[in-house]
């Protein structure tokens, strides 16, 4: 029999609970919203009215509709007010004893056939259910922050759950305009297991001091194309929540990649929980605000070069030449072995992009001829023509480096990585090594900035920052698929609908190429021997078979 869910109870009116109230009330359901004290219930009312008022002031909602939505919600401070609910969803802090207490109390209040749902982001639903009188009516309904905006609802089933209940909750989520993904009970479910380990990696990267806070965020937002940089997202979610999920993931898997970074633990102890306390990785104008008030972390910015050579052929080289010319700099483009390399003499910054591509297949992109035949000779001619004091910038890890290897040992080399544009911008990463002169790094940084690229300066490590964040994240998605927990489509839905990704991990791998991702991971793994960086066997299989994950 199809369930008729008309009255919904929400327990716990923090950020998530209040957002869930808004979602249900907007979908036309009656809501009884309960928190522990009259003050907390009032705070919940305040969250709801502020969110709806904001929508009215932005012209997204009629004032009359706002009043109707608010009119569907009753705020209360007693669980007994939930006696008439068809479904109660709990969104209280992530502590098993609190949840068990609430569920035990609700067991004695709600009707026998009413459903008990938890918005837990990581605790075991099986354990929550097992502590209740009717475990078969307990289910997970996990929303994503901000709940009114993000479409994902993870529906978590346990060994007690029958298909009728999971089907009813799936239909309810669809009625709310959400995208449900039904999965079994595993630490972190789909989205958090992937997202929180990605965020933990970002925090660990920040902890090293190898990259600034803003550059790290730009790597996620502009480099990968995600809606927010990782540290900004940590502040939105709440560092206490992230730590709780890390703890649950680590306890379940003992995977060092999921362990809470020391800095995260310290920030939680210090009460720097993110936006909600007004301070996390950033400082905000007040608690609950998203307006950052502190200045960007200082980076040394030098003067841009006014004379630059770009050696190489292909789209990247052509784009670079165009960008640099638009700054008014004098640009020497050397894209063909027939060109006279003496034009490089006296040029203070020489950028080496892939190619020139002559047709022989060395395995590099674009049929480059690198050291083979005439081009190899041309490469050493270029190396000889470059001034000993010129800053040489290899922009790929293929041909550019082959030229760089022909240089005199004291020529300053500053590797850079030019990324393709995402919907939010375009990144150039500039690597700084132990021997690199900081002024050479800041000249390259300034030159690429002047050319309209957003730069990231980071220590010279495999994957620099963008790939070092993204590739392990993609690898984790492949491991999850290979473990049989969720399909590639469900994983992609979880990350697009739950975290606002423009495309899911498998769509990303298919676009980048499984071979490229596996090779990048292998380089990172070779450098650190970190287990999470070893390319997943299924990724290697796809790379070898040149077979996409989707479609
Ligand atoms: N409540 C209601 N609506 C909100 C909102 C909120 N708290 N925050 C933003 N919005 C609305 C805005 O009103 C705006 O609506 P319109 O387009 O209709 O005007 C829309 O969302 C976009 O907002 P903004 O223009 O202000 O900003 P944006 O484009 O940068 O989007 C964002 C903001 C939706 C938060 C987006 O950056 C995003 O999706 N970020 C990723 C968030 C994410 O990953 N969440 C998952 C966290 S993990 C989790 O929640 C699970 C867990 O258990 C820990």
From TrEMBL:
<dbReference type="InterPro" id="IPR006108">
    <property type="entry name" value="3HC_DH_C"/>
</dbReference>
<dbReference type="InterPro" id="IPR006176">
    <property type="entry name" value="3-OHacyl-CoA_DH_NAD-bd"/>
</dbReference>
<dbReference type="InterPro" id="IPR013328">
    <property type="entry name" value="6PGD_dom2"/>
</dbReference>
<dbReference type="InterPro" id="IPR008927">
    <property type="entry name" value="6-PGluconate_DH-like_C_sf"/>
</dbReference>
<feature type="domain" description="3-hydroxyacyl-CoA dehydrogenase C-terminal">
    <location>
        <begin position="463"/>
        <end position="541"/>
    </location>
</feature>
<protein>
    <submittedName>
        <fullName>3-hydroxyacyl-CoA dehydrogenase</fullName>
    </submittedName>
</protein>
<dbReference type="GO" id="GO:0008691">
    <property type="term" value="F:3-hydroxybutyryl-CoA dehydrogenase activity"/>
</dbReference>
<keyword id="KW-0560">Oxidoreductase</keyword>
<dbReference type="GO" id="GO:0070403">
    <property type="term" value="F:NAD+ binding"/>
</dbReference>
<comment type="similarity">
    <text>Belongs to the 3-hydroxyacyl-CoA dehydrogenase family.</text>
</comment>
<dbReference type="Pfam" id="PF00725">
    <property type="entry name" value="3HCDH"/>
</dbReference>
<feature type="domain" description="3-hydroxyacyl-CoA dehydrogenase C-terminal">
    <location>
        <begin position="188"/>
        <end position="284"/>
    </location>
</feature>
<dbReference type="Pfam" id="PF02737">
    <property type="entry name" value="3HCDH_N"/>
</dbReference>
<dbReference type="GO" id="GO:0006635">
    <property type="term" value="P:fatty acid beta-oxidation"/>
</dbReference>
<dbReference type="InterPro" id="IPR036291">
    <property type="entry name" value="NAD(P)-bd_dom_sf"/>
</dbReference>
<feature type="domain" description="3-hydroxyacyl-CoA dehydrogenase NAD binding">
    <location>
        <begin position="8"/>
        <end position="185"/>
    </location>
</feature>
<comment type="pathway">
    <text>Lipid metabolism; butanoate metabolism.</text>
</comment>
